[in-house]
From TrEMBL:
Belongs to the sigma-70 factor family. ECF subfamily. Residues 15-79 form the RNA polymerase sigma-70 region domain. This is RNA polymerase sigma factor. Keywords: DNA-binding, Sigma factor, Transcription, Transcription regulation. The keyword Cell division does not apply. It comes from Streptomyces mobaraensis. SUPFAM superfamilies: Sigma2 domain of RNA polymerase sigma factors (SSF88946), Sigma3 and sigma4 domains of RNA polymerase sigma factors (SSF88659). PANTHER family: ECF RNA POLYMERASE SIGMA FACTOR SIGM, RNA POLYMERASE ECF-TYPE SIGMA FACTO. GO terms for molecular function: DNA binding; sigma factor activity. InterPro entries: RNA_pol_sigma-70-like, RNA_pol_sigma-70_dom, RNA_pol_sigma-E_actinobac, RNA_pol_sigma70_ECF_CS, RNA_pol_sigma70_r2, RNA_pol_sigma70_r4_t2, RNA_pol_sigma_r2, RNA_pol_sigma_r3/r4-like. Residues 105-156 form the RNA polymerase sigma factor 70 region 4 type domain. The keyword Repeat does not apply.
Length: 182
């Protein structure tokens, strides 16, 4: 009977928190299908340890940690048959709204960060965790979180500046082409 109570307790938790947990997973991996797989894997791993989580108010933090660890395992196990290129492909904008374009750009730009840096940025800025909470969730010192965040934000700024310069150079080139045609 205790096993049935455990199942119902876990199912209720998942039903209540699945949207927020999926958003967290989506911020850790760029592909929506991979985010669903990440969440499912984390839930399976957490289910076996559900009784060990004495304070269920910490279940979200526990699951985020499991997702981060799982994503890191996947990243380490991936095959490195990627070919580095000088220029990234254009981000597609599906619905044409400025907000969606900004989100797509941000998700694309987050891809230049190392997984550890991405985790720190996501937890600090999207999940709005404090430095101490982020350090605890990632198993780092607060100083490491601060320095990692500083380097990650500097890298993001540089990437956005580079993209802006590339955009302006292309725009100037197109205007020059129009003048020659006229």
């Amino acid at each position: 009977m205790a096993s049935s109570g455990k199942v119902l307790d876990f199912e209720e938790y998942v039903r209540n928190r699945q949207d927020a947990l999926l958003r967290s997973a989506r911020r850790l991996v760029p592909d929506p299908i991979d985010a669903q797989d990440l969440l499912q894997t984390a839930l399976v791993r957490t289910y076996g340890r559900w009784d060990g989580i004495a304070d269920k108010s910490l279940a979200d933090a526990y699951l985020r940690r499991v997702m981060i660890n799982t994503r890191t395992e996947w990243w380490r196990a991936r095959k490195l048959d990627e070919v580095p290129t000088e220029q990234l492909p254009d981000a597609s904008v599906e619905d044409g709204t400025e907000q969606h374009a900004d989100r797509a750009l941000l998700m694309d730009v987050l891809g230049v960060l190392a997984p550890k840096q991405r985790s720190v940025v996501v937890l600090r800025h999207w999940e709005q965790m404090s430095t101490e909470e982020t350090a605890e969730a990632l198993g780092m010192s607060t100083g490491t979180v601060k320095s990692t965040l500083h380097r990650a934000l500097a890298r993001l700024r540089q990437e956005l500046e580079n993209r802006d310069l590339d955009f302006h150079a292309l725009d100037r080139h197109e205007r020059g082409q129009e003048r020659c045609a006229a």
